[in-house]
Amino acid sequence: MSAEPFDEHTITALVADATAAPSLHNAQPWRFRYLRGLGVLRLYADLERTLPRTDPEKRGLHIGCGAALLNLRVAAAAAGLAPEVRLLPDPADAAFLAEVRLCGTAHPDQALARLRPSIERRHSSRHPFRDEGIPAAVRERLHDAARAEGAHLLFPGAWHVQSILELVRDAEGSEALDTGIRGETEQWAHTEPSGTEGATDGIPAEAFGPAPRGGGTLVRDFAAGRPMPDRPWASFEKNPNIALLGTTYDGPADWLCAGQALGRVLLLATTDGLVASMISQPLEWPDLRWAARDPVSAMAHVQMVLRLGYGPEGHPSPRRPVDDLLDIV
């Protein structure tokens, strides 16, 4: 099918939905270019938004951009389009992550299209969840969502959940001793209310959630070591629902696939009434990331740890204006 040009409003709307995706520290490390004559939308890594101490291999950057690509596919399907995607189309340009040919209304993916309302509702929730299990049928749907994107999702047993909690503690201890990593976190996590600075990226104080009472939580404390006098305290769930998202291999293409799987799982979880937060702390340290995998599963490389459950929705984090990250040529 030959490509057809789309008006600027349509392209802007698609990119706005894409950029609602999660990214490490909400750095939003992406930019887009639409080629009118070819009907092609290109996704690039914004290398000025890397986290060199936290994410030196840019694995997290690729995962965030993959999640944005999934959102784009969902928005396109909801608009009646059937996009064709090529990952890493130019080996000579590592920042050129994907090319999306916006085909017409041949056979839009209805499973993706149904996720469109959840794009605006999905926000990372760093609040306590109820101590309530997730039904087997919901878990199976989330597993299938990851598999549809070429990734694996599994819910580890109780002993493994406790080991993940220990890995989180180890990672936070290492981070506390690394001034470079702490500096990056402070750069992107703002202890001031979002309205005071008009920030368009990073994590606002309102999205931190309450400070954990008694420790032992999986939720990253973005205010660690910095005073926030008005921040409330809360006790978190004792038996968190944890899911491991992973891939068989571990290169840039696999990270992009993992990001698309992450985006699809999060949108489906939102559709099913779940809230979620991401646990990347132990995956940012190579020795701890290796220990996070389930030794009895076929998952070779853990790409993200998810905390899922029932509870309050998260506070929205700011987004960059589309005009700042989209070129139409």
List the helices and strands and how they pair.
Blueprint lengths: L7 H11 L11 E6 L4 E6 L13 H20 L5 E4 L8 E6 L8 H4 L2 H6 L14 H13 L3 E3 L3 H19 L2 H10 L5 H4 L13 E2 L20 E2 L6 E7 L4 H20 L3 E5 L6 H7 L8 E9 L16 E3 L1
Parallel strand pairs: 1-11, 6-7
Antiparallel strand pairs: 1-2, 2-4, 3-4, 5-8, 8-10, 9-10
Helix pairs in contact: 1-2, 2-9, 5-9
Architecture overview:
The chain is built from ten helices and eleven strands. The chain has helices at 8-18, 59-78, 110-113, 116-121, 136-148, 158-176, 179-188, 194-197, 252-271, 286-292, and strands at residues 30-35, 40-45, 84-87, 96-101, 152-154, 211-212, 233-234, 241-247, 275-279, 301-309, 326-328. The protein has a five-stranded mixed β-sheet. Strand 3 and strand 4 form a beta hairpin. It is globular, with a radius of gyration of 19 Å. The mean pLDDT is 94.
What's the gist of this structure?
The chain is of the alpha+beta class and 329 residues long. The chain has helices at 8-18, 59-78, 110-113, 116-121, 136-148, 158-176, 179-188, 194-197, 252-271, 286-292; strands at 30-35, 40-45, 84-87, 96-101, 152-154, 211-212, 233-234, 241-247, 275-279, 301-309, 326-328.
Task: Report the β-strand fraction as a percent range.
Answer: 15-25%
Order of helices and strands: HEEHEEHHHEHHHEEEHEHEE
Number of helices: 10
Q: Shape from CA axes?
A: globular
Helical amount: 25-40%
Question: What distance separates the N and C termini?
Answer: 22 Å
Mean pLDDT: 94
Q: Report the structural category.
A: alpha+beta
Total strand segments: 11
Strands of the biggest beta sheet: in what spatial order? 3-4-2-1-11
**Rg:** 19 Å
